[in-house]
Design brief:
- The complex is a heterodimer.
- Chain A is of the alpha+beta class.
- In chain A, about 70% of the residues lie in helices and about 10% in strands.
- Chain A contains nine helices and five strands.
- Chain A has a five-stranded mixed beta sheet, covered by helices on one side.
- In chain A, α1 (about 10-30) runs antiparallel to α6.
- Chain A is rod-shaped.
- The two termini of chain A are about 30 Å apart.
- Chain B has one domain (about 5-220).
- Chain B is about 75% helix and about 0% strand.
- Chain B contains eleven helices and no strands.
- Chain B has helices spanning about 5-15, 15-30, 40-55, 60-65, 70-75, 80-110, 115-140, 145-160, 175-180, 185-195, 200-220.
- The longest helix of chain B has about 30 residues, at about 80-110.
- Classes of the chains: A alpha+beta, B mainly alpha.
- The interface between A and B is medium-sized, with 17 and 19 residues.
Chain lengths: ~375, ~220
């Protein structure tokens, strides 16, 4: 969960409150501050600083507080310093530990000064409640982050699976075409071939009527074969046409007119690269529609045997806050990088998005 | 060469070091004193010691400014070892300064003015405190020059009001109460107790000085890049 630069964490607030309590203690004790009391005050400060620098067991505070109780028999005013330890115990919800010290303070201190440990207790409990709340929020944020991370992993797996599925579907299609060629076209051509052979023999024997009948049959079979061939070729072409058309449709159906320059054929790209390119164009166009009001949108798609490069430029700049920080752009970058490509953004007078992808998938 | 020796060498390389450590303490002996109290030079030495300590922490700040601490962090040397070597080297030089001053005082004022061993131990405690104070002060700044510019003003005022460069008894009572929170006050207080031959008073001041040392060390020893 995003935290503002200026917001304070629980630990910082605890330290801040401790410092404020120390300062107020100094003011309360100021008139009585002789050298021995100053020494006790400094030792308490030292013990607090020691715990800020090093992760000591908070239970050691019990020893410090107990020593302070002993010292308070010789130095009456040192009782007030127990308020700091009461705050510390309360901020960790160690109510059993703080109770004897709190009661000792109430017994020993006269009424106006007795408010100091009460204040320490209340502030400590407030900090403890806040800490509990913020821990719960942090835990929730961590769980959400974990979920997002898992979703991203799933997405990558799906991308890989999609590529595998494409490959499988191609193999399946190839088998289907081979079956059509073998089962229908092959049979028809063989039959036509045999009929034509028979036609030759019939003509040699001057059986014209039978020859004409064979010719008609051969013609029917050849027409059937031609139909089967057309069907097979149509099935072969179907997917490639769709990839091209889908991409062009994106540009054609966009809210603003797009000046598209395309070189190279999308057919040469791996299905996974095609898919990522398609979703990247879709995301980029959505971003332009959402965040920019361009007078001109220009797209250049250059596909070679090794690299695919897409440049999308518009003159209605994106808002500063949406630059790169958006989830869409981040996911796009992740998908492109997963295939070994890169995404870069150039901002000068226009907003230019450059996507480079290898034409053949590099992902392991 | 160990870091300790290197730090000693670096400190002694500074031109003003020998002047501050060996010559200026002798000059303080000739400052006239008030009757019935310890010589004024004894408390003014606190001011000299404060600035000497500040100068001796310069190599630590420069290491941070020149990003040498980053390289040290990447090496097998721990920050505690690096810092303790530097601080011990500086403390040794400050102890030498105290010794020079005390020995010169014995020769100049005679051996019966005060208990010189206790005076020396009080000075060493004060040296440790001002050294850690300089470390903590410098840790708040990125540039030594800025740090020094501010410290020279605040240090002088601190020494003035806490009775090092001016007799504490001549200050108003309210100021005398307020300055008890200043660390430099405890040298003046220690010297006062030494003048009154109160052993417990001197011991208390020395302990307060060592607790201040601990506090400033905890603040200043945090690694900053």
């Amino acid at each position: 969960m995003h935290q503002s630069t200026y917001s304070l964490g629980c630990e910082q607030v605890t330290r801040l409150v401790t410092m404020l309590l120390l300062a107020s203690l100094l003011l309360l004790l100021f008139e009585k501050l002789d050298v021995p009391l100053m020494l006790v005050f400094l030792l308490v400060l030292f013990s607090l600083l020691l715990r800020w620098r090093f992760a000591l067991n908070p239970r050691f505070f019990l020893i410090d507080a107990a020593v302070l109780v002993v010292v308070s028999y010789f130095q009456q005013d040192a009782v007030l310093l127990l308020g700091l330890y009461i705050f510390s115990f309360a901020s960790r919800m160690q109510l059993v530990a703080l109770t004897p010290f709190f009661l000792y303070c109430l017994i020993k201190l006269p009424l106006p000064l007795a408010l100091f440990p009460v204040l320490g207790l209340l502030l400590g409990l407030l900090v403890a409640l806040w800490r509990k709340e913020s821990d719960a929020v942090r835990r929730e944020a961590d769980e959400l982050r974990l979920k997002v991370h898992r979703l991203q992993e799933e997405e990558q797996h799906l991308l890989l699976d999609y590529q595998d599925a494409q490959q499988l579907s191609r193999l399946e299609e190839r088998n289907h075409i081979a079956r059509i060629l073998h089962d229908s076209l092959g049979h028809e051509l063989t039959a036509a071939h045999l009929t034509l052979k028979a036609l030759g023999s019939l003509l040699q024997r001057n059986e014209v009527e039978k020859a004409l009948d064979s010719q008609a049959k051969a013609l029917v079979r050849l027409e059937n074969s031609l139909d089967q061939l057309k069907l097979a070729v149509r099935q072969l072409q179907r997917d490639d046409d769709t990839a091209n058309q889908r991409l062009r449709q994106l540009f054609e159906q966009f809210n603003y007119p797009v000046d598209l320059h395309q070189s190279g054929d999308i057919e040469v790209l791996d299905p996974a690269v095609q898919q990522v390119l398609y979703s990247a164009v879709k995301e980029a166009l959505t971003n332009i529609a959402k965040h920019a009001k361009p007078a001109m949108v220009r797209a250049q798609l250059a596909i070679t045997g090794t690299t695919t490069r897409l440049m999308l430029e518009n003159d209605g700049l994106f808002d500063q806050k949406n630059e790169e920080t958006g989830n869409g752009l981040r996911y796009m970058r992740r998908r492109v990088e997963a295939l070994g490509g890169s995404v870069s953004i150039q901002r000068d007078e226009t907003f230019r998005l450059l996507i480079t992808l290898p034409s053949k998938k590099e992902m392991g | 060469m160990t870091i300790f020796l290197f730090a000693l060498q670096q400190n002694l390389k500074q031109r003003i070091s020998l002047l501050l450590l060996l010559v200026l303490p002798l000059v303080l002996l000739f400052i006239p004193s008030m009757t019935g109290s310890l010589p004024m030079g004894f408390s003014l030495f606190g001011l000299l010691n404060l600035y000497s300590a500040f100068l001796l922490t310069r190599p630590i700040v420069e290491d941070r400014m020149q990003k040498i601490v980053v390289r040290i962090a990447a090496s097998p040397i721990s920050h505690a070892y690096y810092l303790s070597s530097h601080l011990l080297a500086s403390l040794l030089l400050l102890a030498v300064q105290c010794l020079v001053f005390v020995v010169a005082s014995i020769l100049y004022f005679g051996p019966h003015v005060t208990n010189y061993l206790v005076l020396f131990l009080l000075y060493v405690s004060y040296s440790a405190m001002v050294l850690s104070l300089s470390l903590a002060w410098n840790s708040m700044f990125r540039s030594y020059n800025t740090s020094f510019a501010l410290f020279s003003g605040i240090g002088s005022i601190m020494c003035l009001v806490s009775g090092l460069s001016f007799p504490l008894s001549l200050l108003p009572q309210s100021v005398q109460t307020m300055v008890r929170i200043l660390p430099t006050y405890y040298l003046a207080n220690g010297l006062l107790m030494l003048g009154k031959q109160s052993g417990s008073g001197v011991l208390l001041s020395a302990v307060v000085l060592w607790v201040f040392t601990g506090i400033f060390l905890l603040i200043g020893s945090k690694r900053r890049f």
